[in-house]
Amino acid sequence: MRERDLFDAVEFLRREGEALLRSFARAHRGVTYADLRFETVFHRSCVANDGEPRESLESEGASFGVTVWADGAGNFFGAGQYGAEIGALALDRKRLVSALRAGLEEACARARASARAAGTLRRRLGAEAFGAPAAALPQMPAERDDVPATFRDDPRTLDPEALKRLARDASAGARGVSSAIVYNVVAALTELRRELFVSTAGAAITQDFAFSQGDCYVVAETPQGHQETYDSIGQQRGFEILSEGCASELQPNPDLVGFAIEIAREAVDLANAPVLKPPAHEVTVVTDPHFNALVAHEIVGHPSEADRALKMEAAYAGRSWLLRSPTVNEIGNRIGAPILSACSDPTLEGYGHYRYDHEGTPGRRVMHLERGIFRGFLNSRATAAILNAEPNGSARAAAACYVPLIRMSNTFFMPGADEPAKIIADVEHGYYVCGNQIPSIAESRENFRISARRVYEIENGRLGRLYRSGSVLGDSRRFFMNVDAVGNDLRLIAIPNCGKGQPMQAKRMSNGGPTLRSRARLAGG
Amino acid sequence: MRPLAELKRFAREGARILAADPELAQFEIYCSSAEQLVMRLNYTSDIPCKGVEECKSLGADGFAIRIVPRSNPQEIGAGFVAGDLSADALREAIARARHAAVVDPHFQGLPDGPRRLEIANEGPNDLARTPGSRMVAAAWEIVDGAIRAFKARMPGNERHGLVLGGDLSVTRDCFAIASSNFDGIRAEQGAYFSSSVTALVERLDARATASAVGSSMAELSQIVPPLGREAVNRAIRLGGGEQPSPGKHRVLLGPQPIAELLCYLIVPSLTTGSFHAGNSAYLARFGETVIDERISLADEPAGRARAIVRRLTCEGLPARRVELIRDGRLVGLLSNHYDSQRLAADEHRADKLGPHASADIQFPAANGYRLGEGGGRRFDSMLGTAATNVVMRTHGGLADRELIAAVGDGIYVGRVWYTYPINGQRAGDFTCTITGDSYIIRDGRIAAPLRPNRLRINANLEEVFRAPIAVGRRIAPITVWGSPEIFYVPALAADGISLSAVGADA
Questions:
Q1: Nearest C-alpha of chain A: how many angstroms from B171?
Q2: H or E stretch at A95
């Protein structure tokens, strides 16, 4: 039977999915576990360019992903996955079930083929070739819950003209700032996502998410120079956060028009500013919350992902400076100043908020740095077993058709006691580094060069000249150990597109921190 | 995956329905089906692992439409539907496209190339039919070869921190397009594989990568299984590396670093979109010599012996070779139909192209694609500009040994990562770290391995490409993580490249 509302397919599979998985597992010898992730997404977006509408989209999608574990010889199991974007096919219950069954069969065939090949290899090379056997996976969570989304303006019933008008007005606003603005693009999106997770272990969870996001890219050109500046705002809310702004204490944002004008003004100021010619030696740097969001992302968050730390991402995104091996690592060691702490917390409202991860594990706060001591990793169930840790609910996919990876949630430096103005006022000579642009990270993230949007010289506690094209260049541990002031002005920043995995998955999250003061070298243009 | 015949049938039927709509002046219907099979490798000798971590696939099929109403030739609406090729789905797509329509004063109509086009369709290659279980077996052959090589080269040292990562991926796709602006259905299908295998021997502080691309099962069966063995053997040879002092060095950049620079800095600057936006590293320099005169650069979507072969763009236009840089001179840009029109009508066009550009230069829309993250054609991706096979050729290029001799004393950089335009695309500044496959060059010879992850490059495109000491002759195919293109590039040596130390402060 063909239904009318794609979102109803989630309810259907909430009722029928477990039985489908269990009957599949019963009918296939050696299948020890199977799970199904399914989602529907309603998406509305608009792009405006130089004050004119450029393109707009309204879409509704559905996708699923299944995972099957199959036993092989010698107690070695194989895992197989299958994912597909099926869209409107999900409106037809019979075809939907048929597609899921076909996906499970294919995933099972891959799992069995992998288990067989692994068994053959172990027999030929000896069991020790695969290192110490993994600890048994922690007991499967069997959570059953329904989590609603929070929004005022439902993306599905929003007048499409409202979104188009807003993007156009924001782009026109940016263009109107100055004749030096030679190009701008403003994008606005609002979407509603409903996710389902069911497993043979008894989990049955639905979670709804509302996302709204605005992106702005501006090119400014003056006789003094050229500047490209971009940034995003985003919340797990409806269109209201773009049309009216958001007064959240942790992650506030102006409305999209105000945001675009702010970015354009900054680009013009920077195009008129000289390129930073940095001193050759290490200097005092005061970094603002926006810049620290990227430091938290690249230097705390990514290396705290257990899959990366356990070398599973070594060929793509590198390893982690926080773990040499499960027994030789930085857990319990000092890697930062006693005033520096950092964590990931999906329970906070932010762009990275969720209640359950995509293995059905409840998300919770994970302390990474506690008064300078490294405390632990974000993990999945499998990596938690290897590290002999409790699963902390950090395995998430960008969409149901992708395989979950370990991802940040809201990852940030925690606030301290210092007033930001005093942190600057106490500097005799140094630099105030504001806003992040581009990161470049060493292989294990033990070193970084992160470019800033604005760099001001500090002379006798006062902000001096503005420079463009400045970067902070440092070794991670030394930068953290040298932190001597932590502000009380914690802010989270929406990160719209963190890439990880093969094929690349772009994930939304929040990062942030308060104002920090440390020492580092600077690089210029 | 859906068969191409089904896509063609739906494109034909959809075109018939759209053509009968009296309110539409122009329309386009694009149907695609794509699948990416990915076998991700993860072997760690000292950490429990699965060997082949993920045996997965990602598939999508559906269609997208673009419509232009008779009431306003500058109004364009777009919509797509996944998973359903039916008349109901087409009606839904039309309704969504009408909701989403915008009046864009710069829109000048849908692509209007030749009404008739004969495209030789060679049919699906055997990769298009390969089952997932065969790919699982191939991935395990890589792991098997790697472990055997490690045990043979380092007997009794199973706990020496061997890490094997990477993947074997097959991308297969097919698409059909019909448009009010041309006759008949245009369609194409293709499949290719890529595999990149990285081996680290942590106790030796060594890292090496072996990779391959191809378009048939015969090639896959022949060149993929040995990749694990090759990566491990190379990594072992790279053990005990030296760490030179930071400062300015002579550097021989191998094909992989050159591919990264092309991918992240140069190719994005060689599009009509980047010239219109004013963010190209070569803004106002069209027609000028922008890099060394020994170097030429082109996109060759249907070149012989290339892994990806495309004869049609996702706009239904011929996917032609585009010459970008000829003997160092900027002579062409990648483009899609909209961006070609937009730059042609740009009131600041002459300033943006520069004084050496001919007033009547045209940029044909030979590169309009809808590509997913994995590189396959996707109906639900926005239309953009992309290259297919980026080929850098040189004249006066040297053989590998001669290149090394030309450097004299310096560093061979075989692999870098996180190569980004650190101060924006136009500035041309970049930074990256040297992660493996690299050596010290002394007296014109490879003298010792370079310790990985100890040096960061901080430089500008001009420093690398403007006056290189020497350019290579041998071209190697390189894939870049997350990029849909394949880069066929040589090595290139440059002087005075700034290197800073990683971990010097630790």
A1: 11
A2: helix A93-125
Judged against a pLDDT cut of 70, whether residue B435 lies above it is answered with yes
Beta strands in B365-409 (DSSP E): 368-369, 384-385, 389-394
CB-CB neighbours of A425 under 10 Å: 12
Contact A503 B374 (CB under 8 A): yes
Residue recorded with tokens 């040096």: B455
User: Contacts of residue A164 in chain B, CB cutoff 8 Å?
Assistant: 102
Instruction: Provide, as residue numbers in chain B, all residues whose Cβ is less than 8 Å from the Cβ of A135.
Output: 48
CA distance B471 to B87: 57
Chain-wide mean pLDDT for chain A?
94
Locate the DSSP E strands across A87-180: 144-147
Tell the burial category of A270 from Cβ atoms under 10 Å away from its Cβ (0-12, 13-18, 19+).
buried
pLDDT value for B506? 39
Q: Is B195 on the interface with A (CB under 8 A)?
A: no
Q: Do B169 and A83 touch (CB under 8 A)?
A: no
CB of B54 less than 8 A from some CB of A = yes
CA distance A2 to chain B (A): 11
Phi and psi at B297, nearest 5°, equal -140, 135
Question: Quick check: A311 and B420 CB within 8 A?
Answer: no
Asked if A121 and B140 come within 8 Å (Cβ–Cβ), the reply is yes
Q: Would you call B77 helix, strand, or coil by DSSP?
A: strand
* Average pLDDT over every residue of B36-48: 93
Give the dihedral sign, CA A293/A270/B263/A521: negative
| pLDDT of amino acid A480 | 98
Of B30, B130, B84, which Cα lies nearest the Cα of B371? B30
Task: Flag if B59 and A506 touch (Cβ within 8 Å).
Answer: no
Which residues have CB under 8 Å from A418's CB, separation 6+?
A485, A486, A487, A488, A515
* Encoded tokens for A215: 């992106």
Cα distances (Å, whole numbers) of residue A466 to A24, A215, A286, A458: 64, 24, 14, 10
Beta strands B486-489 and B476-479, pairing class: antiparallel
* C-alpha neighbours within 13 Å on the C-beta side of residue A7: 13
Q: Is B422 an interface residue toward A (CB < 8 Å)?
A: yes
Pairwise CB contact (< 8 Å): A315 & B500: no
Q: Do B372 and A503 touch (CB under 8 A)?
A: yes
Q: Do A318 and B435 touch (CB under 8 A)?
A: yes
Q: Which two tokens stand for residue A49?
A: 């360019």
Contacts of A443 in chain B (CB under 8 A): 417, 433, 435, 452-453
Which of A98, A204, A107 is closest to B133 using CA atoms? A107
Taken in order of first residue, the domains within chain B and their CATH numbers are 4-237 (3.30.2290.10), 247-501 (no CATH)
Q: Which of B268, B241, B279, B257 is nearest to B324 (CA)?
A: B268
Beta bridge partners of A505: A500
| Cβ pair A85:B62 closer than 8 A | yes
Instruction: Please name the residue that has the structure tokens 């009794």.
Output: B156
A182 vs B278: CB contact, 8 Å cut-off?
yes
Which amino acid is residue A392, in one-letter code? N
What's the CA angle centered on A115, arms B200 and A105, to 5 degrees? 120
The Cβ of residue A324 has, within 10 Å, a number of other Cβ atoms equal to 16
Residues of chain A with CATH 3.30.160: 160-192+211-271
Task: Determine how β-strand A77-85 pairs with β-strand B51-69.
Answer: parallel
Cβ contacts below 8 Å, chain A against chain B, sum to 299
Among the partner-chain residues B55, B209, B433, the one whose CB lies closest to the CB of A443 is B433
Instruction: Name the class of domain A160-192+211-271.
Output: alpha beta
Report d(CA B75, CA B64) in Å as an integer. Answer: 17
Least confident of A123-132, B110-119, B413-422: A123-132
ipTM: 0.94
Q: A329: which chain B residues are within 8 Å (Cβ-Cβ)?
A: none
Residues in B closer than 8 angstroms to A386, CB to CB, are: 47-48
